[in-house]
Specification:
By secondary structure, the protein is an all-alpha fold. The protein contains two helices and no strands. The relative contact order is 0.16.
Amino acid sequence: MTAFRFRLERVLEWRRTELELEESRLQQLIKALMELDSERARIEAAGIRAEIEVRAWRPLAGSDLEALAAFRQHVVGREKQIEARRDEARRRVESQQAALLEARRRCNVVAER
């Protein structure tokens, strides 16, 4: 009976290690998602600042408006890229949450025995 308990303790220790790894992976993915949100906010703010600055210029040349329009297109393109990366990151977070849930379940099954 003692040998069986010893093996079960080793299994529990292994399951806890797996659980910690899954939790760590989830935290890394959440951090990456938050960084994408920050990047999107920065690019959006840069677009707004550029528009405000250009509108305040006197005199305002046609080339200034042309440059602003090009920058707006750049901002929109970057926002779309970031949104696509964010969607993928969100899917990875959801997948990792499922993996974490499964690791918790496996750990609890061993701990209850």
